[in-house]
């Protein structure tokens, strides 16, 4: 982002502050430039925080942000897809451990990865739901569209769906693609987002179970069947022949195979058809290593070419 564009973006963000604008502006600049500060007094010593140290508390206690206006600013600054392509979005949850902040309101327990063996994988803290644009080419830097703390009265699915519902009308008219990890490949998320104009590629658990369409009524006594034959990700005997397959090599030289099975559904969400996607990766340098298998579902309109799903 060139300097003039960055200056316009910063001015637009500051314009979303509705109270204590100057102090909040300096606080944002300090946060963006000082990655070593461990406390508010340290942030107040940043050369970009031009006010007295008391103003940092004024910014936090009195500051107000027009969230809808800020969403508009972020959406307008989002990268535009190339001709013939569309935006790729991602939604995820990030924990912030606040173990010692006993007086902080509405703390919950958050999942913490890589804990020592035997330790509980949860600690007191906050969770944040973030909706972003995935860059092309993919990198660790993303364009944030919205970020909100998940209160104890909501779930990642309910808040993430609300974020998506608010931001989608602000984006390009092309139907975007949303990526989600295993926390979103479930009935709750699908039901909450069923009416949104977005295609979704969602990771699912390895033991997920689906059903094929129900067979036609037999005319015999009793209620007709509501589900067809079962499809279990863990049992190859239930899967049958894939509707389509693709085999190739990715940019790392790994052998990749993709298989898809369409017209499936969750038992608790029969009205939404999904396509199950299986991606298997084999490292030719390690022929004895177990293949890496990833299971996903596609929810939406036309399935993209399988070589795109292999990426």
Number of separate helices:
8
| Multimer state | single chain
Order of helices and strands: HEHHHEHEEEEHEHEEEEEEEH
Mean pLDDT: 91
Beta-sheet strand percentage? 25-35%
Beta strand count: 14
Apparent shape: elongated
Largest sheet entry:
10 strands, mixed
Q: Give the proportion of residues in helices.
A: 10-25%
Question: What value does the Rg take, in angstroms?
Answer: 24 Å
Distance between the termini: 27 Å
Unreliable segments (pLDDT under 50, ≥5 consecutive)?
none
Helix/strand-derived class? alpha+beta
Please explain how this structure is put together:
- The protein is an alpha+beta fold and 311 residues long.
- It contains eight helices and 14 strands.
- Strands 3, 4, 5, 6, 7, 8, 11, 12, 13 and 14 form a ten-stranded mixed sheet that branches. Strands 1-2 form a two-stranded antiparallel ribbon. Strands 9-10 form a two-stranded antiparallel ribbon.
- Helix 2 crosses helix 4 (54-62).
- The relative contact order is 0.09.
- The mean pLDDT is 91.
Question: What labels describe this entry?
Answer:
311 residues, 10-stranded mixed beta sheet, 14 strands
Give a brief rundown of this model.
The chain is of the alpha+beta class and 311 residues long. Helix content is 23%, strand content 30%. The strands form three sheets. Strands 3, 4, 5, 6, 7, 8, 11, 12, 13 and 14 form a ten-stranded mixed sheet that branches.
Helix-strand layout with pairing:
Layout: H1 3-14, E1 17-19, H2 21-33, H3 40-44, H4 54-62, E2 64-65, H5 67-77, E3 88-97, E4 108-111, E5 122-133, E6 143-149, H6 156-167, E7 177-180, H7 187-192, E8 199-203, E9 209-211, E10 230-232, E11 244-249, E12 255-266, E13 269-282, E14 292-299, H8 306-309
Parallel strand pairs: 3-7, 7-8
Antiparallel strand pairs: 1-2, 3-5, 4-5, 5-6, 8-14, 9-10, 11-12, 12-13, 13-14
């Amino acid at each position: 982002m060139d300097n003039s564009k960055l200056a316009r973006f910063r001015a637009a963000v500051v314009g979303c502050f509705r109270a204590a604008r100057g102090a909040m502006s300096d606080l944002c600049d300090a946060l963006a430039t000082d990655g070593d500060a461990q406390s508010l007094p340290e942030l107040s010593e940043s050369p970009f925080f031009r006010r007295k140290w008391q103003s940092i508390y004024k910014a936090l206690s009195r500051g107000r942000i027009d969230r809808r206006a800020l969403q508009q600013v972020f959406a307008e600054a989002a990268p535009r897809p190339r001709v013939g392509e569309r935006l790729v979005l991602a939604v995820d949850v990030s924990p912030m451990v606040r173990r010692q902040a006993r007086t902080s309101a509405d703390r919950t327990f958050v999942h913490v990865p890589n804990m020592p063996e035997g330790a509980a994988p949860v600690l007191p803290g906050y969770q944040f739901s973030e909706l972003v644009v995935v860059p092309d080419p993919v990198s660790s830097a993303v364009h944030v569209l919205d970020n909100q703390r998940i209160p104890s009265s909501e779930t990642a699915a309910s808040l993430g769906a609300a974020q998506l519902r608010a931001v989608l009308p602000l984006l390009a008219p092309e139907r975007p693609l949303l990526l989600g990890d295993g926390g979103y490949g479930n009935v709750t998320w699908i039901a909450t987002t069923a009416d949104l104009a977005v295609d979704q590629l969602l990771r699912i658990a390895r033991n997920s179970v689906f059903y094929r369409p129900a067979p036609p009524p037999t005319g015999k006594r009793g209620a007709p069947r509501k589900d067809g034959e079962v499809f279990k990700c863990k049992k190859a005997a239930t899967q049958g022949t894939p509707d389509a397959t693709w085999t190739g090599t990715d940019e790392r030289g790994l052998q990749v195979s993709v298989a898809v099975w369409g017209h499936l559904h969750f038992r608790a969400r029969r009205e939404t058809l999904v396509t199950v996607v299986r991606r298997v990766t084999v490292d030719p340098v390690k022929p004895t290593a177990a293949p890496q298998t990833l299971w996903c579902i596609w929810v939406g309109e036309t399935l993209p070419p399988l070589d795109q799903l292999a990426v």
